């Protein structure tokens, strides 16, 4: 274990925001986690696990515990009766994995193309895009428990996956994901029911034949929706789309006939928060310091220069209270708002 001290965390996040870590270490071998956990326990310091830092807002004052950057690598393909299983280290780049699967003509991950971050970060909020959630592909998640030093596999059904949610955000938030196993199919059908994808292929006057065709479409659509991470700091969609009862949906639809929404199962409706922010709250272009709403998509908050976590939180609060005031709907952040010394 190589411990570094007072390391600036901003460059380890896509928001480019965050103070210094009291201690910082890169974990390349799963066995190193035990050493890190023992050190943190001995020093009575909290742990913060970072993957690609693409779904976190770190505090300006930094983190006065131990930040563990997960760099555990490795990709293994196993043929099974059910399909091709891929066992992947938590530190692998998610999008490189998706590209590799598409290149091998394996179906399943292609709709999740272009999402930044690591493989270990994907089960935490059950990443989803263009009609697919990673939970659909996960077989098991291997975890390390820093409290007990034990390592074990959690089957998909024990991960309690939901909309941008899992047990790793609640009861199991202290666990460190070390590897995950995904089941992919050699023969598959493109999942292009999602409106943007349907429209893309209708415009092309062609149907996708391979996972790479779908990947190319998703990457093209995403390039117009998300800012260029090399130029602007962001953690993608800052908020979850609210899920409401059919009654609330009907009331809002009466007031705002153009309201964009989707069935969310169990008699509920998912509202397009981007539409509400743009058309009901009229918050286009709103800024707090250098933090602002993206011109490409209102769900995306950006660091346009030297924004602080305080700026981003204040901007988010403005949006949350405006939506509540205008629609009565409660908005939750999708991005993990990290507090100093806690998780
Ligand atoms: C431009 C952009 C577009 C995006 N688009 C999407 C999208 O379409 N769909 C979507 O769902 N998300 C999207 N995201 C959000 C983000 O990319 C995903 O949530 C990603 O999976 C986060 O992975 P990460 O490795 O960066 O996690 P981090 O940001 O490093 O961490 C996120 C949380 O997970 C925890 N964590 C990370 N790794 C581990 C681990 N190994 N073990 C235990 N805990 C861990 C952290 O402690 C933290 O609480 C987008 C983000 C950006 C910047």
UniProtKB/TrEMBL annotation:
The active site is at residues 164, 237, 334. GO terms for cellular component: cytosol. Gene3D superfamilies: 3.30.465.10, UDP-N-acetylenolpyruvoylglucosamine reductase, C-terminal domain, Uridine Diphospho-n-acetylenolpyruvylglucosamine Reductase, domain 2. Keywords: Cell cycle, Cell division, Cell shape, Cell wall biogenesis/degradation, Cytoplasm, FAD, Flavoprotein, NADP, Oxidoreductase, Peptidoglycan synthesis. Its main location: cytoplasm. Its cofactor is FAD. Pfam families: FAD_binding_4, MurB_C. Pathway: Cell wall biogenesis; peptidoglycan biosynthesis. The keyword Oxidoreductase applies. Residues 16-187 form the FAD-binding PCMH-type domain. One of its GO terms (biological process) is regulation of cell shape. It catalyses: UDP-N-acetyl-alpha-D-muramate + NADP(+) = UDP-N-acetyl-3-O-(1-carboxyvinyl)-alpha-D-glucosamine + NADPH + H(+). GO terms for molecular function: FAD binding; UDP-N-acetylmuramate dehydrogenase activity. Its EC number is 1.3.1.98. InterPro entries: FAD-bd_PCMH, FAD-bd_PCMH-like_sf, FAD-bd_PCMH_sub1, FAD-bd_PCMH_sub2, MurB, MurB_C, MurB_C_sf, Oxid_FAD_bind_N. Cell wall formation. PANTHER family: UDP-N-ACETYLENOLPYRUVOYLGLUCOSAMINE REDUCTASE. Belongs to the MurB family. This is UDP-N-acetylenolpyruvoylglucosamine reductase.
């Amino acid at each position: 274990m190589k411990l570094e001290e007072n390391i600036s965390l901003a460059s380890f996040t896509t928001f480019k925001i965050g103070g210094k870590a009291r201690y910082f270490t890169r974990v390349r071998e799963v066995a190193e986690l035990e050493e890190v956990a023992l050190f943190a326990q001995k020093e009575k310091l909290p742990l913060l696990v970072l993957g690609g830092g693409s779904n976190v807002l770190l505090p300006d004052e930094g983190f006065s515990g131990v930040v563990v950057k997960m760099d555990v690598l490795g990709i293994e393909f196993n043929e099974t009766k059910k399909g091709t299983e891929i066992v992947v280290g938590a530190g692998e780049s998610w999008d490189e994995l998706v590209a590799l699967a598409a290149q091998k003509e394996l179906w399943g991950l292609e709709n999740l193309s272009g999402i930044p971050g690591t493989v270990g970060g994907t089960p935490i909020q059950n990443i989803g895009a263009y009609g697919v959630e990673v939970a659909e592909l996960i077989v098991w998640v291997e975890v390390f428990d820093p409290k007990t030093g034990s390592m074990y596999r959690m089957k998909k059904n024990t991960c309690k996956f939901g909309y941008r949610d899992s047990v790793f955000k609640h009861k199991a938030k202290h666990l460190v994901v070390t590897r995950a196993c995904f089941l992919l199919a050699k023969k598959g059908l493109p999942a292009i029911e999602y409106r943007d994808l349907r429209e893309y292929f209708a415009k092309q006057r062609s149907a996708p034949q391979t996972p790479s065709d779908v990947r190319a479409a998703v990457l093209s659509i995403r390039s117009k929706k998300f800012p260029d991470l090399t130029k602007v700091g962001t953690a993608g969609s800052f908020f979850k789309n609210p899920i409401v009862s059919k009654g609330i949906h009907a009331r809002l639809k009466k007031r705002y006939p153009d309201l964009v929404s989707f069935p969310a199962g169990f008699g509920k409706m998912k509202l397009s928060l981007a539409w509400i922010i743009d058309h009901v709250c009229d918050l286009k272009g709103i800024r707090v310091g250098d933090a602002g709403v993206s011109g490409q998509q209102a769900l995306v908050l950006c660091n346009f220069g030297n924004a602080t976590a305080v700026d981003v939180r204040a901007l988010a609060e403005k949006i949350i209270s405006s939506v509540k005031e205008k629609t009565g709907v409660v908005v939750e952040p999708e991005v993990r708002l990290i507090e100093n010394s806690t998780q």
